[in-house]
Amino acid sequence: MIFSGGVHGLVAIGDPNVPSLEEQCARMFERVKIIVEAAGGTLDNIAKMTFWVTDRDHRAQINVDWIKYFPDAASRPARHTMKGQLDSGMLIQCDFIAVLGDSRA
C-alpha cells in the first residue's frame, strides 16, 4: 500500500512565483502519477484521494484534471474535497491511498 503525504503543485515551497490554480492542479496530478509509478503501480491502483483547496470553487479545476487522469467514470478512485488554509501560495494539495497489485481495471 502507498499512503502519500501532501502532494502540491508548486515549483518549490517559498518560490515567489506562485503558479496559477490550473498549473498547480496539473502539476499535482502529474506528481501523483510519478509517485505511484515509482512504487511500481499505476493510477488504477489509487483507491482514494483527498483534496484540500483554499476555495471550494477550485473543485471545477480538479474535475478537469480528474477526468484527464481518470477517464473511466466507472473506475475512478473515491474522492473527498475539503476547504482548508494552505501555506506558501498553495491553492490545492492532495494525498492518496493506493493498493499495489490490486488494479481496479
Structural class assignment: alpha+beta
- Name given to the CATH homologous superfamily: RutC-like
How much helicity do the residues have? Answer: 25-40%
* Annotation, overall tally of beta strands: 5
Radius of gyration: 13 Å
Coarse morphology: globular
* Overall domain count: 1
Give the SSE string. EEHEHEE
Distance between the termini: 17 Å
CATH architecture: 2-Layer Sandwich
For the sheet with most strands, the description reads: 5 strands, mixed
Short description:
The chain is α+β, with helices and mostly antiparallel strands and 105 residues long. The chain is built from 2 helices and 5 strands. 28% of the residues lie in helices and 24% in strands.
List the helices and strands and how they pair.
Elements: E1 2-3, E2 7-8, H1 21-38, E3 46-53, H2 59-69, E4 78-83, E5 92-98
Parallel strand pairs: 3-4
Antiparallel strand pairs: 1-5, 2-5, 3-5
Overview of this protein structure:
The protein has 105 residues and is of the alpha+beta class. It has one domain: 60s Ribosomal Protein L30, Chain: A. The protein contains 2 helices and 5 strands; from the N terminus they run ββαβαββ. Strands 1, 2, 3, 4 and 5 form a 5-stranded mixed sheet that branches. Helix 1 (21-38) runs parallel beside helix 2. The chain is globular and about 40 Å long. The relative contact order is 0.31. The model has no long low-confidence stretch (mean pLDDT 92).
